[in-house]
TrEMBL record, chain A:
The keyword Membrane applies. Keywords: Membrane, Transmembrane, Transmembrane helix. The chain crosses the membrane at residues 12-32, 44-67, 87-105, 125-145, 166-189, 201-224, 244-264, 284-301, 313-332, 344-364. It comes from the Bacteria. This is Quinol:cytochrome C oxidoreductase.
UniProtKB/TrEMBL annotation, chain B:
Pfam families: ActD. Keywords: Membrane, Transmembrane, Transmembrane helix. The chain crosses the membrane at residues 57-76, 96-118. It comes from the Bacteria. This is DUF3341 domain-containing protein. InterPro entries: ActD (IPR021776).
Automatic annotation (TrEMBL), chain C:
It comes from Plebeiibacterium marinum. Pfam families: Fer4_11, Fer4_2. InterPro entries: 4Fe4S_Fe-S-bd. PROSITE patterns: 4FE4S_FER_2 (PS51379). This is Fe-S-cluster-containing hydrogenase.
TrEMBL record, chain D:
InterPro entries: NrfD-like (IPR005614). Belongs to the NrfD family. This is Polysulfide reductase NrfD. The chain crosses the membrane at residues 35-59, 79-100, 112-141, 161-186, 219-238, 258-278, 299-320, 340-358, 365-391, 411-437.
Length: 390, 177, 990, 459
């Protein structure tokens, strides 16, 4: 078993090409497309949030399985860790929005706020916004750093204490993310539509990013297998990951419909305004989002056989990833660019390719920093030897 | 029709049972049945059972339930008697989702259970062909069937070789007749 | 019959006696019979009443307004013009008669006084017709006798009374010219007859003041509609003072900003928050004993300003400065009234009006009001005469002296030695046990009668049903005593021909004219009084007013619902929440919050004053040193379990022999430690900063008509929806309520109950918030409750808002409530299974649930919950057959009077014509004396509602919820300098 | 299959298959003890009280409850939601934990599922009883009728009809299908008797054939797969009874998942309350171990914290919304006349479960028992707070009112306890409380020092 990952030249080439393509597309978009300052900032927010959310989702994946005493995930733990440990990159990518606050957030224009936004000023004000951002990022980075460090330590030490300590930090992380996932979603996404509010929004966003993380883990697992690693990951593991993607896609849809149905039903303008904006100006994307985030994985992964097919799983995961990118797009664009940005252009694609390529670089770099499977993990053996019920 | 006769062999451990069955299978004697007190992991693979078609039944029934429920609701609201409730549209899809979902689950669940019962030939008051009452307690029983008495001894030997204990020829009792 | 010492004992005695009375027994047994028996009896009752009424009703003489009288068409209502008069105000009405039984009273739009308005009491008076406690036969000492025997005995006794002894005819004010003629005839036969007028409320002071000025006792004709500035000292002219229905109608003429840009200024000085006070623009809280002080101050200030002589020995209260300035500014378009029953005080008031030049503009002597002719001194001298043995007979005519005499006079003692005592009454009243003869009098809906409300303003009453019991109208009771055998109709007709109609030049034959008068119900002659007022001689004003008020004073007032208490036996009125306190089914000592705090009284703590124990009601806007309670209570009500409602507080007033005074100083208020739960329909009185009732000041309104209503435009602008509105292609019914016109008089509430068979649930059920009114009037206090003069009151009638996006309709699992193609939120009662989900979801909380079997419509036997006797055989005759009687467990609510809409639509269809705006009037709209409710088709561009929806004052209740109500409101505009209008906290997306 | 050595055994006491059967079926042998009769007697008494209260409700009308024009739902619907919530633990354990391969569910799933069914029966009573016209309750079904009138598919209450009946049906099937092999076990242990015949009928002729087992497993898995979203949907739909309205405090989008979390929370609390006693009374300490209790406590702390976060989210959003009505509703909850209900809810649901962060408390049976009761109380108050405090002061202050229950409502509630415990007592007497076959299936991997040949001695 080759458990030490090495970045090959091919990988480097592909990713460099990605970075260059991204930059080129952005430049093209800026030269030939119509763009506004808001749109640039919106793209920075979108992709920055995408990257940081993947890190958070990945560490949540690790942490929640550790405290739930789950065995099977040990095989993919390091991959999730690699995604998660790059929280610094996500932080770097999202922090710049502080400079674009006035383009992104209507509430930051304190000079002309209506009565309701004045009422919200206790929360929606720039200093507090930045303070919260610092707290989130500092907290996440610290806890993730600890988790990663302890996990890497287990490669060399078989002391169970390390494992239990890891579990403690995982619990802390889960508690911290339980609160901050909601508040950060309110801060960065929901407050774009400053008047609108929905209590479910935080959870909805979180489940979205978690599904997305699972899709990315699946993609990475399959890519690494294609590169010749992770040969111990068999059908059973893929089946489990597939079940995850399937189940959480349904759960995402459940939250989506919960939020939509309740707002649709009561039809109170202060709430419907959010959906009315999206349904009128982003009609097609609005429905496409539901189709590729729910309908596609639901039917693609329903049967047991499909969950065990590598290519089937890979393509579904890629579609789901696109779906959740679109979900973020729909969360951010209508409130920032309005109908002017009612579409996806080279600019959006360029930004995403650039950010994702950079992120992949970082992930691969992290993968080299330890064994691809935690060596002295107490569930190490258990995770290779199990079967799904038929 | 000839009176069926059976030879049973007892195992007290599921692991030994699996090994024993593999042993018996080498002898070309068809295994009539294996009785266990709980679902033994891997037994279905060893006995080469086909995958059950119950999932497919559930899917079809669920889909049918969903379609029926949805179509019925649409028909009621927009064709049979379109009533204005709180200004909602007659074709109010979000309102139809809960009932559609519930009916899908109900159809699927009922069809699964009935599919299972019918396929397994069991049901309220169905007779049970019991070889050894301990099979619901702690005994794993391999049941082999023979028609020709001459086979009897051979089967005895095979079972013995396969590590079975308490091997005997048996006429099963029918419960509940 | 036994004598009784207390009302409690009286009740018990009556209960015992009832046990022997076969009729009472029958009524009781009907109430307690099981369902099958009940249905039989009910069916029989309805059928027999219908047959009885239709066979014997005086068809030949009664002329319906709309339908020819030849026959009654089953299921089609006829309307008969009549007049409500019960010793207080007189209101011409139309009586809706269906299948021989009157089922609804509507205002008569031909009446120039009320313009079709009614009051809660007028609306409710219908129910007293079906009151089983009414005396059913003539009795002598409690024994039933025949009319002929009674008459024979009475005539015999009357004849035997020596000439030096008086025969006292103790009556409420008689405004009927024909009854006066009858009495004249009696007086001819018995010259020793003396008429003593005993009104339930005394306006003696006012009348005496005018006697001073014009020479005869008179109440002038006030014109609130001509007044730009109205100042009232304690007179609740919108609620109870003289003729509130007419005054309300006049008053609102200058409050309707949708018609003109005129807004009158109303200033109220009072001690207790009254209906008028709560509608006033400015309000000053004074002690009752201080009233004259303030009136004199005002007089002097105005005298100074107008260079008139001032009154001596009068201080100056600085509060009146502003009032005086305003009055002087509006000159002759001013009107000052006062509630005081003191002649001298009323003289000063007259003096003020005179200085302002109001005589002849806002106060007319041309049409002097004939109401309330009682003179306090007459009553006291009658008592004195009785004591001295100078009275040979007392004939009470609907005056209930045992209840209405001043508390210092003990009626029982007074008449115990009198040879002949007769009580002519339509009620089972307190006087009956003390009189030898009780002669049952018809209800006004059973009688012919005529009235002269004000000089030259005549109206008629005609019977709409054959007398239910063995009763007669007053003419038929009295005429036999003088040996005349003439039918009342003929008697009145003859009188009118020779005295009233004859005077008028006719364009048509005479008989047609009588018929037209009958059909119209009202008649106005050109006859004018020739009363001339002389100038007020300030010397006339004796300084006899007792200036010394107590530290704590008691103020008696009349409640808007019950008034003088004559209709106390009326469940509709008893359940009517007071427009100010929102309490029903009891009277109470109302106290200011600060007084309550000082004494540590909480709402419902029973306190005792001079032996009268009543619970405390904490009433903002009341003077700190005043305790008030309503008169008209302490009367017994015949419910399945007869009970005394409230307490009579009359003996808290100490009356001098010169006049009745409605306040007194009190001391020694005892806290009893007992608590009593008052039944109230509203428990929270603060709007909590919500823009529910939007108001502004007149100044701001003139600058921007939408002021106070800024939110409306914002909300309209931000209405988004996830689905398209349904189209309403035909009619789309809508209603607008002008909050500036609505005074909160409650007439609409009773009208709605009568029209829609709304159950009465009784005190206990109201306590549990189980009241069923489809229409309620929300009342909020704004400003601080601790400053009684600053407190301001806003009211809002709320019924089902008929939302086009109704949250209630969505959630009914069985589709029992849905939206009609004409925009009405409709209920299918027989489909309702009673989940109450709709009620929970209704943001307006206008849906009502039948918690128990209130109506007898339930299919389970022995579970009826009818605390008020509303389901008795007789009372059920009042039910409107067009409206389903709801069963237990069913939700009900305002239907926009769908039965009326359907009826008018069908009528128009039959005539192949189009509905005109105003053809359809909902019951509440019809009853409203202020005409504050407007109903119509919003799809008709010419309709009033479609104009109103564009009014800058228009808004919907909770419109930010996007429920799209069909009911709208017009903002309230107060005539005040500046206004702290509530700034709605609502978003405006920039 | 390999199991990590750091995992705690799920069955303690070195049990053999035979011992498992004997231990679990023991309560069904012989005569029940006095305690059982006392318990059943008390339960029947409560049931009778409930019967009287139900009679009064139906006969006299809903007026016999403390509801009024402002508060249309009170204890009745509070109890409904509470009981449905309690039921959710069973399905959660047997469906979602099955999908997540949590083996510790095997010891408790049977009794938890039984509780699901009994709780749903209790819950189902309330929507029926709260109807003003119970005899016409069948109107909720879309049956063809002469009026051509169907039902209102927009109504969450109608969704409830479908959700609750489907849930009851599926739970019953799931439970009974799982019970069949165990009934067969009892049948096979009995000597020829009438009792044996009854069990034979109930066992559906189960033989333990490998083919049946395979099919049974397949069906169970799919039923679990169906029951998992079903359990989510049921309480979500229950939550929509409130959340679809426009009433502040009711209308909030977080309700569906938060209600589900709350339901599992309360359900686990009830399972713990009952199982801590039952394991002792029926001597099942080796099957329902402290480890099981700890695992359940972990679920409690997780769901309790989710619920807590939801409370705070609601509170914050009410402020953040800037809507006067929303803001008022929550201030009123915490500081209005029903403040005590809110703080009972907060204390019991958010604060007490946090004690489970300490391993010592998590593994302490007495502490767990007390906290589980706190949670039961807290979750009842959660529904009370949502229903009553939201309704009693909504939009128009003129209609604000107060609510307190009458003896009839309390009686009906006690009656449902009677029903629940009557059924539960009968259940533990006549059916195995622990799923025998399922425990046996994990015995090899998770039994403490499973000694194979130990069985020989039992022959």
């Amino acid at each position: 078993m080759d458990n030490q990952f090495v970045i090959t030249k091919n990988i480097k080439t592909v990713l460099t090409v990605g970075v260059i393509t991204g930059v080129l597309l952005i430049v093209l978009g800026l030269i030939f497309g119509s763009w506004t300052e808001e749109r640039i900032w919106a793209n920075i927010l979108l992709n920055g949030f995408l990257v940081i959310s993947l890190s958070l989702g990945a560490v949540f994946f690790v942490a929640v399985h550790l405290i739930a005493e789950s065995g099977w995930q040990t095989t993919v733990q390091r991959i999730a860790e690699a995604i998660g440990s790059n929280i610094w990159l996500g932080a770097l990518m999202i922090v710049p929005i502080v400079f674009g606050v006035h383009s992104l957030y209507h509430w930051s224009h304190t000079e002309h706020l209506d009565s309701v936004l004045q009422l919200k000023q206790g929360y929606l004000n720039l200093p507090f916004f930045i303070l919260r951002m610092i707290i989130y990022i500092a907290g996440w980075t610290f806890l993730i750093y600890k988790i990663r460090q302890l996990s890497l330590k287990s490669d060399s030490s078989s002391d169970l204490k390390v494992f239990y300590k890891l579990r403690t930090y995982s619990a802390l992380f889960v508690v911290f993310i339980a609160i901050t996932s909601s508040t950060s979603a309110w801060d960065w996404l929901m407050s774009i539509d400053a008047h609108w509010f929905s209590t479910l929004y935080g959870w909805y966003t979180f489940i979205g990013l978690f599904v997305n993380t699972i899709a990315v883990i699946i993609i990475l697992v399959i890519v690494l297998q294609k590169l010749g690693y992770l040969n111990y990951i068999n059908d059973e593991h893929l089946h489990d990951l597939g079940k995850y993607l399937f189940g959480f896609s349904i759960f995402w849809a459940y939250l989506w419909i919960s939020q939509y149905l309740l707002i649709w039903y009561s039809n109170i303008p202060e709430e419907t305004v959010y959906y009315v904006e999206r349904i009128t100006n982003f009609r097609v994307l609005f429905y496409v989002n539901v189709v590729i985030c729910f309908v596609v994985p639901f039917f693609a992964l329903m049967s047991r056989g499909n969950k065990r097919k590598v290519s089937w799983l890979l393509y579904t995961s890629i579609i789901v990833f696109c779906g959740h990118w679109l979900d973020l797009f729909l969360a951010i664009m209508p409130g920032t660019t309005g109908d002017a940005g009612a579409g996806i252009s080279v600019l959006e694609i360029g930004f995403t390719i650039l950010y994702i390529s950079l992120f992949c670089f970082a992930i691969f770099k992290s993968l080299t920093k330890g064994s691809l499977v935690p060596q002295n993990h107490p569930y190490y053996k258990e995770s290779f030897d199990y079967e799904n019920i038929k | 029709m000839k009176n069926r006769q059976y030879i049973t062999g007892v195992y007290y451990d599921d692991k030994e049972l699996l090994d024993g069955i593999i042993q018996i299978q080498k002898s070309d004697i068809p295994i009539f049945d294996v009785r266990t007190p709980f679902p033994v992991h891997g037994l279905d693979d060893v006995l080469k059972f086909k995958r059950s078609r119950l999932p497919r039944l559930g899917f079809v029934a669920g889909t049918l339930g969903a379609i029926l429920a949805f179509v019925f609701q649409v028909w009621v609201f927009s064709s049979s008697w379109p009533l204005n409730f709180g200004g909602k549209p007659f074709f109010s899809v979000p309102s139809f989702i809960p009932v559609t979902f519930e009916m899908a689950v109900l159809f699927a669940a009922i069809s699964l259970v009935f599919g299972f019962l019918i396929k397994s030939g069991i049901g309220p008051g169905a007779p049970a062909l019991i070889f050894d009452e301990r099979t619901s307690d702690n005994v794993f029983l391999v049941v082999l069937e023979f028609v020709d008495d001459s086979h009897e001894q051979k089967i005895f030997n095979v079972l013995k070789e396969a590590g079975a204990e308490d091997i005997k020829s048996i006429n099963p009792s029918l419960q509940n007749e | 019959m036994k004598y009784w010492k207390s009302l409690e004992e009286y009740n018990n005695a009556e209960e015992k006696d009832n046990a022997h009375s076969p009729t009472e027994k029958r009524v009781k047994s009907v109430l307690k019979s099981d369902r099958r028996d009940f249905l039989k009896l009910f069916g029989f009752g309805v059928a027999s009443a219908a047959v009885m009424a239709s066979c014997e009703r005086p068809v030949k003489k009664a002329i319906p307004l709309l339908i020819q009288p030849e026959e009654i068409r089953p299921g089609v209502s006829s309307f008969y013009a009549s007049t409500y008069y019960n010793g207080g105000e007189a209101v011409p009405v139309l009586v809706k008669v269906r299948d021989g039984r009157p089922i609804k009273i509507e205002g008569n739009e031909q009446c120039q006084l009320t313009n079709g308005g009614t009051s809660a009491q007028v609306q409710a008076s219908l129910l007293n017709l079906y009151d089983e406690s009414r005396p059913k036969n003539p009795t002598f000492n409690g024994v039933e006798i025949s009319w002929s025997d009674a008459n024979r005995a009475i005539i015999e006794k009357l004849d035997s009374i020596p000439d030096e002894k008086d025969i006292i005819f103790l009556t409420h004010t008689i405004i009927s010219p024909s009854i006066k003629l009858v009495i004249d005839k009696l007086a001819k036969k018995y010259p020793n007859i003396k008429v003593v007028i005993l009104d339930s409320v005394s306006y003696s002071g006012l009348r005496e003041a005018y006697r001073e000025i014009v020479g005869v006792s008179a109440i002038p004709f006030y014109r609130f509609d001509k007044a730009k500035t109205i100042v009232s000292f304690g007179a609740d002219f919108l609620g109870t003072w003289i003729t509130p229905t007419a005054y309300t109608n006049q008053y609102v003429q200058n409050r309707k900003l949708q018609h003109s840009q005129q807004l009158s200024k109303h200033i109220q000085y009072e001690s207790v928050l009254s209906l008028s006070g709560s509608n006033a623009d400015d309000r000053y809280v004074i002690k009752p004993s201080e009233q004259h002080k303030y009136i004199r101050s005002l007089f002097n200030r105005i005298a100074e300003l107008t260079n008139n002589p001032v009154l001596p020995r009068a201080g100056f209260e600085k509060e009146v400065e502003n009032t005086a300035q305003l009055l002087v500014k509006s000159k002759s378009e001013s009107l000052v009234v006062a509630s005081s029953n003191n002649k001298d005080v009323q003289l000063v008031v007259f003096g003020i009006n005179q200085m302002l030049g109001s005589m002849g503009t806002t106060i007319s002597l041309d049409n002097e009001l004939k109401l309330y002719q009682g003179r306090d001194t007459d009553i006291f001298s009658f008592a004195k005469n009785c004591e001295e043995g100078a009275v040979g007979a007392v004939v009470c005519y609907d005056s209930n002296p045992a209840y209405n005499l001043p508390s210092s006079i003990n009626f029982k003692e007074l008449i115990k030695d009198i040879k002949l005592t007769i009580n002519i009454t339509s009620q089972n009243d307190e006087t009956n046990p003390f009189c030898q003869f009780v002669l049952p009098l018809n209800h006004y809906l059973e009688s012919w009668n005529d009235y002269e409300v004000a000089s030259g303003m005549y109206s008629l009453s005609q019977p709409t049903i054959h007398p239910i019991f063995n009763s007669k109208d007053i003419h038929q009771i009295l005429l036999p005593w003088v040996g005349e055998q003439v039918k009342t109709h003929d008697f009145i007709k003859d009188y009118w021909i020779s005295n009233i109609i004859d005077n008028q030049a006719l364009e048509n034959s005479f008989v047609t004219s009588w018929k037209r008068v009958l059909s119209n119900g009202v008649f106005y002659s050109e006859k004018k009084n020739n009363l001339k007022n002389k100038l007020l001689d300030t010397d006339l004003i004796l300084n006899s007013v007792d200036e010394s008020g107590g530290e704590l004073e008691f103020q008696a007032y009349h409640s808007v619902a019950l008034g003088d208490g004559k209709l106390a036996n009326n469940p509709w009125l008893q359940e009517l929440p007071d427009p100010v306190s929102k309490i029903c089914w009891d009277n109470y000592f109302s106290v200011a919050p600060s007084l309550a705090q000082k004494n540590r009284w909480k709402q419902g703590d029973v306190i005792e004053i001079k032996g009268v124990r009543l619970p405390v009601c904490i009433q903002p806007g009341q003077h700190e040193d005043v305790i008030a309670a309503a008169l008209g209570y302490g009367r017994t009500m015949l419910t399945p379990d007869p009970e005394t409602i409230g307490k009579n507080v009359k003996h808290l007033l100490n009356n001098s022999s010169t006049g009745i005074c409605y306040y007194a100083s009190i001391s020694n208020v005892k806290t009893t430690g007992i608590t009593y739960e008052l039944a109230t329909t509203q428990m929270h009185h603060n709007m909590e900063g919500r823009a529910l009732i939007r108001e502004t000041s007149f100044n701001e309104y003139l600058k921007d008509a939408a002021s106070g209503n800024e939110m409306h435009e914002i909300v309209e602008h931000h209405h988004t929806s996830l689905y398209k509105k349904h189209e309403f292609k035909g009619h789309h019914w809508a209603m607008f309520i002008d909050l500036n016109s609505c005074t909160g008089c409650n007439a609409c509430v009773v009208a709605c109950s009568a029209e829609n068979n709304v159950p009465v649930v009784g005190r206990d059920e109201v306590r549990r918030s189980h009241e069923m009114h489809w229409l309620r009037i929300d009342r909020y206090y704004t400003q601080s409750p601790n400053d009684p003069s600053k407190i301001s009151v806003v009211r809002q009638p709320v019924m089902c808002q008929h939302c086009d996006n109704a949250p209630c309709e969505n959630v009914c699992p069985v589709a029992a409530t849905n939206h009609s193609s004409e925009g009405i939120n409709q209920m299918a009662y027989n489909r309702c299974i009673g989940t109450r989900y709709c009620n929970n979801n209704c943001p307006y909380k206008v849906r009502r649930f039948n918690w128990y079997d209130y109506t007898g419509a339930d299919s389970i036997p022995f579970n009826r919950k009818d605390a008020t006797g509303m389901t008795s055989d007789l009372k059920r005759l009042v039910l409107n057959p067009d409206v389903t009687v709801r069963a237990k467990g069913v939700i009900e609510k305002c239907s926009f009077c769908i039965q009326r809409i359907q009826e008018k639509k069908l009528e128009a269809k039959k005539l192949a014509s189009h509905l005109k705006d105003g053809d359809i009037q909902t019951a509440c709209q019809q009853a409203c004396p202020a005409k504050a409710i407007i109903f119509g088709d919003i799809n008709d561009p010419k309709s009033e509602v479609s104009q109103l929806i564009k009014d800058p004052r228009a808004y919907h209740l909770l419109e930010e919820l996007h429920t799209l109500p069909s009911v709208g409101y017009l903002t309230k505009v107060r005539n005040v300098e500046s206004h702290n209008s509530i700034k709605p906290k609502y978003k405006n997306h920039s | 299959m390999y199991i990590s050595p750091i995992r705690e055994p799920l069955v303690t006491g070195s049990k053999s298959y035979k011992q498992v059967t004997d231990d679990i079926t023991k309560p069904m042998d012989g005569k029940p003890g006095r305690l059982w009769f006392v318990g059943l007697g008390l339960a029947l008494l409560a049931l009778m009280l409930g019967g009287v209260a139900i009679f009064v409700t139906v006969w006299d009308g809903i007026g016999s409850w403390g509801l009024n024009r402002t508060i249309g739902w009170g204890w009745g619907i509070t109890n409904f939601v509470w009981w449905v919530g309690i039921g959710h633990a069973g399905t959660f354990i047997s469906a979602i934990l099955l999908l997540f391969r949590q083996k510790w569910r095997t010891s408790i799933n049977r009794s938890a599922e039984a509780m699901t069914i009994f709780a749903v029966m209790c819950a189902g009573l309330f929507p029926l009883l709260h109807m003003g016209r119970l005899p016409l309750g069948f109107f909720v079904f879309p049956y063809p009728n002469t009026r051509d009138l169907w039902v209102n598919f927009n109504s969450p209450l109608l969704w409830d009809v479908f959700a609750i009946s489907t849930y009851f049906m599926v739970s019953l099937l799931f439970w009974y299908m799982g019970l069949i092999p165990d009934i067969a076990t009892i049948r096979d242990r009995l000597k020829r008797s009438f009792k044996k015949k009854v069990y034979a009928v109930l066992s559906f002729g189960w033989t333990g054939s490998a083919r049946h087992w395979a099919r049974h497993e397949s069906m169970s898995l799919i039923l679990a797969g169906l029951a998992a979203p079903l359990v989510l949907s049921v309480h979500s739909i229950v939550s929509m009874d409130f959340a679809t309205s426009v009433i502040p405090g009711w209308h909030t989008t977080i309700f569906p998942p938060y209600f589900v979390a709350g339901a599992v929370f309360s359900g686990f609390a009830m399972v713990l309350t009952l199982m801590i006693i039952t394991r002792k009374a029926l001597n099942l300490q080796n099957y329902i171990t402290v480890g099981h209790v700890e695992s359940m406590n972990k679920v409690i702390i997780a769901t309790g914290s989710i619920v807590g976060i939801a409370y705070i989210t609601e509170l914050f959003m009410a402020w953040y919304s800037g809507v006067v009505y929303e803001r008022f509703a929550f201030v009123n909850r915490a500081f209005g006349p029903y403040w005590w209900a809110y703080w009972i809810m907060m204390t019991c649901n958010v604060i007490t479960p946090q004690l489970f962060w300490f391993k010592k408390i998590r593994r302490n049976l007495a502490a767990t028992f007390i906290i589980s009761i706190f949670v039961n109380i807290g979750m009842w108050f959660e529904r009370f707070v949502i229903i009553v405090t939201s309704l009693h002061r909504d939009f128009l202050p003129s209609s604000w009112a107060m609510y307190s229950p009458t003896w009839v409502e309390v009686g009906v509630y006690l009656g449902t306890f009677g029903l629940f415990f009557t059924l539960f007592f009968l259940f533990i007497r006549f059916f195995p409380v622990v799923a025998i076959a399922e425990v046996k299936s994990v015995l090899r991997s998770s039994g403490e020092n499973f000694v194979r040949k130990g069985v020989e001695n039992e022959k």
